[in-house]
Design brief:
Length: 283
């Protein structure tokens, strides 16, 4: 059973393309509209059958779509949100950005109809990017966090939640503030650490002995360091306060372990590693 006659996707990368494919493969929409800043990407999305109807301007897509998914970088999503306000403030829409407070604040401050938006953060994705990486099953079995705006009814939340569950995801509802705090530890800080671990090899990768010592541990730990620079720079900046707190806490933990190693307290290290191991196994 279809949920929408049409949905519009703004931003046709891995996530936006996968939203379109998931909606189609699960029979939730009759037609997918597409808008992105790159005409080549828009044409590629049409060639792949991901988008049925391309739009060269976002405002024109907004006028005709029944529901819109904002799938661009955070700053772009914020600008497009303001365009929705100008063109069609009652439009149902969501975003798939990795931080939620910034866009939720804009909706709460500017929109006269708050029951038209609920944020979405699919805990899915990849360090790979682009429309060619889009998959219809990207969200299957994954969790999508939904962040409602304050003082709104349940209609938008339930509709957005229903969409994600019908494409195979599990959903959790939480405030934008709580989401951004938790994700600074579970997603944003780990990406930052991965970037730093790779940066530490700067100037050393021409040494064949260094390359010989790079094994699966380093590759697994730093896989996400191949992530897109535009997206992650904006995530760090958008969640600045939580990121800075998480970084300070990480620094404290690092200093504690530094002192233990400096004192050669091997038994202490064993207990610490075992504790962390058990935590990781529970995850």
């Amino acid at each position: 059973m279809k949920m929408f006659k049409s949905i519009g996707i703004a931003g046709l990368g891995l996530l936006g393309g996968s939203v379109a494919l998931a909606a189609k493969s699960n029979g939730l929409v009759s037609e997918v509209f597409g808008y992105t800043r790159s005409s080549d990407t828009l044409q590629r999305a049409c060639d792949l059958g991901i988008v049925d109807r391309p739009f060269s301007t976002f405002s024109e897509m907004v006028k005709e779509a029944e529901c819109v998914f904002l799938s661009g970088p955070i700053s772009v999503n914020l600008e497009l949100t303001k365009s929705i306000l100008e063109v069609k403030p009652t439009l149902l829409f969501t975003d798939v950005g990795s931080t939620k407070k910034a866009i939720t604040d804009v909706v709460e401050k500017l929109f006269p109809y708050r029951n038209c938006f609920a944020g979405s953060h699919p805990m899915a994705g990849s360090e790979k990017r682009g429309i060619d990486q889009a998959r219809c099953d990207l969200f299957s079995g994954r969790t999508v966090i939904i962040t409602p705006v304050k003082n709104a009814g349940t209609q938008a939340v339930e509709t957005i939640r229903n969409f994600w569950e019908r494409v195979g995801a599990k959903t959790v509802i939480m405030s934008a503030e709580k989401h951004d705090t938790i994700c600074s530890y579970t997603s944003h800080l780990p990406h930052l650490v991965a970037f730093l671990l790779v940066e530490m090899l700067e100037g050393k990768l021409d040494d064949s002995d260094v390359m010989s010592c790079i094994g699966p541990g380093f590759c697994d730990t730093t896989r996400i360091a191949a992530s897109d620079q535009e997206i992650w720079a904006e995530i760090f900046a958008s969640n600045k306060e939580n990121m800075l707190l998480a970084m300070k806490k990480f620094q404290l933990h690092l200093e504690q372990i530094e002192r233990i190693i400096e004192k050669n307290e091997v038994e202490h290290l064993k207990k610490w590693i075992e504790k962390v191991k058990q935590m990781r196994m529970s995850i």
